[in-house]
Amino acid sequence: MKSNVIRTRLWDVSFSISNYFLLSLITFACIYPFYYIFIYSLSDPIAAGGGLVFWPKGLNFDNYRRLLELPNISSSFVVSVLRTVIGTILTVFCCTLFAYIVTKRELPFRKFIYRFVVITLYLNAGLIPWYLTMKSLGLKNNFLLYVIPGAIVGFYVILIKTFIEQLPAALEESAMIDGAGYFTIFIKIIFFLSLPIIATIAVFAAVTQWNTWQDNFFLVSDPKLQTVQMVLYNYLNQVQSIANMTIQELNRGEAARQITPQAVRMTMTMIVTIPILFVYPFLQRYFVKGLMLGAVKG
Amino acid sequence: MFNKPMLTKSRLNLLLMAVPFLVLVFLFNYLPLFGWVYAFFDYKPGIPLSQTEFVGLKFFTLTFHDGGEMLNVLKNTLAMSFLGIVTTPLPLIFAILLSEVKNGKFKKFVQTTTTLPNFISWFIVFSLFFSIFSVEGLLNTILMKLHIISEPTNILGNREAVWYVQTAVSVWKGIGWGAIIYLAAIAGIDQELYDAAKVDGAGRFQMIMNVTVPGLMPTYIVLLLLGISNMLSNGFDQYFVFHNPLVAEKIEVLDYYVYRIGIATNDYAYATAIGISKTAVSITLLFTVNFISKKIRGESII
């Protein structure tokens, strides 16, 4: 009996140790590539070319300073921030208001209207029809292409509707008696009561906006409307003449510290990743909770 | 009597509020569906559709006659989807291992860091992998310095390995995110089941096998079935960013093929026809899988 207990105990401890080891390994694999790019972007490009593993070589912010001075990078950053902010606000507002309208039993054709939107989860016309439709709607080389098509997302509508339905009805009814209209009730009551789910949707929408590049790639050639993702793509594909021009421009007149294509690539990658890292704590806090709220009925 | 007109007016208001959103949904989700007509015409960009010839199902049958190209694309698509399905237990195993950790801080740290790759764009994923696995990348630099290899190996340009490399990339990006749903399911397992198992003298491993794993099975089966129904749509982004001439033949999946045919060679009609066929197969698979789920579990998944 006793030896059995000891054996179980031994097994437990060795399981724990190997488990911690394995999980640490997976964590390392997930986080190290980001760290590597980070230290590379902070290193002297020539020294970094010789190899880095854990610490930057010749620590400095030159790569960032010089890259951010470039007009196409700073303008793409502005475009990406604008599409993220405007797109997120629009998506959150439209999806929440629409979800609220659909929860109202007195809405005519309520079932049909809700299904009309939910079915879009399974609808996909394909690349070419999408491309031609956007073009014919005049969204080619148009900033609105970034923000309008994503204003209503079926999945978000389901999540918000489920949330609103489980709010106490009493608050709304009392406002109704006071003669407030639907829109007033939405702005003054529903919106604030729904803040937990709205936070979830907002971080999701923001990350999607920041990461999306297909609309830019297929339909926007105007250099003033390029997003950071597309600029990063141009650096990843050195064939693009813009990328080569930039590197020449960066090196002009500064013989002392040459910048290399790798350094430009790494630094640009960091510039695109940093905003995600910035909202990540919020993502962490809200997404699990938010998803579980929705999954109850989903 | 007095209330009735008021009521209709407010109901009408409500409907009017919904209309702008319905218009948006129609424009961006339903209108593109009308673009499917292009598949039935010999459409060339620049010429209005009314002046082009109606060719019926020509482009649909072309799918079967375009030499080995389509066959190769289907082979790549199915091979990588199959490898993807083979790796579906990994997030489940990862979630179980994570739930066995007693230290809350470590657990949270692991969960936070492993979900991060899910939230970055494919360009960043490519940039990260490129900086480590390319010819001039970190791995080759280290291996050369340690004299383990004398010539750098091009992992991202290895034709034979590309299916496995892409599967590994998908696992890297998705494992943490995929584990979240299982962690939630584990939290939902009745604690009494564990207590009962303990009374019966079950060890840690036996509890995992006899309580946790069966508790996760319903969730796993749903995700597995959805994965099977998505077999033809392994996405465009990943294969687009990792595409290079060395691996082109082995990495080209259906979604990429539609892009190449449609945008790169401007063959709108054929690309649309492939897209429609793909959607038709996917929907059939989805309903089949849903039917199977209903039969076996008495629950539908969509």
From TrEMBL, chain A:
| Keywords carried by this UniProt record | Cell membrane, Membrane, Transmembrane, Transmembrane helix, Transport
Membrane topology for this entry?
Answer: Multi-pass membrane protein
Its GO CC terms are: plasma membrane
Enumerate the transmembrane spans: 20-42, 77-100, 112-131, 143-164, 185-207, 263-283
Q: What is the organism of origin for this protein?
A: Cohnella phaseoli
**What PROSITE patterns does this protein's entry cite?**
ABC_TM1, PROKAR_LIPOPROTEIN
Q: Where in the cell is it found?
A: Cell membrane
GO terms under biological process: transmembrane transport
> What name does the UniProt record give this protein?
Carbohydrate ABC transporter membrane protein 2 (CUT1 family)
Q: What is its main location?
A: membrane
- Domain ABC transmembrane type-1: from-to ranges: 77-283
| InterPro entries listed in its UniProt record | MetI-like, MetI-like_sf
UniProtKB/TrEMBL annotation, chain B:
Keywords, alphabetical: Cell membrane, Membrane, Transmembrane, Transmembrane helix, Transport
Membrane topology category? Multi-pass membrane protein
List where in the cell it is found. Cell membrane
- Quick check: keyword Transmembrane helix in the entry? yes
The record lists the lineage as: Bacteria, Bacillati, Bacillota, Bacilli, Bacillales
Transmembrane regions listed in the UniProt entry: 12-41, 78-98, 119-143, 163-186, 207-228, 268-292
Q: Which organism is it from?
A: Cohnella phaseoli
- Alphabetical list of InterPro entries matching this protein: MetI-like (IPR000515), MetI-like_sf (IPR035906), UgpAE/MalFG_permease (IPR050809)
Q: Which residues form the ABC transmembrane type-1 domain?
A: 74-289
Instruction: Name a biological process GO annotation.
Output: transmembrane transport
What protein is this chain from? Answer: Carbohydrate ABC transporter membrane protein 1 (CUT1 family)
Record PROSITE patterns: ABC_TM1
Pfam families given in the database record: BPD_transp_1
Q: How far does the signal peptide extend, from start to end residue?
A: none
Q: Which family does it belong to?
A: Belongs to the binding-protein-dependent transport system permease family.
Q: Quick one: a GO cellular component term?
A: plasma membrane
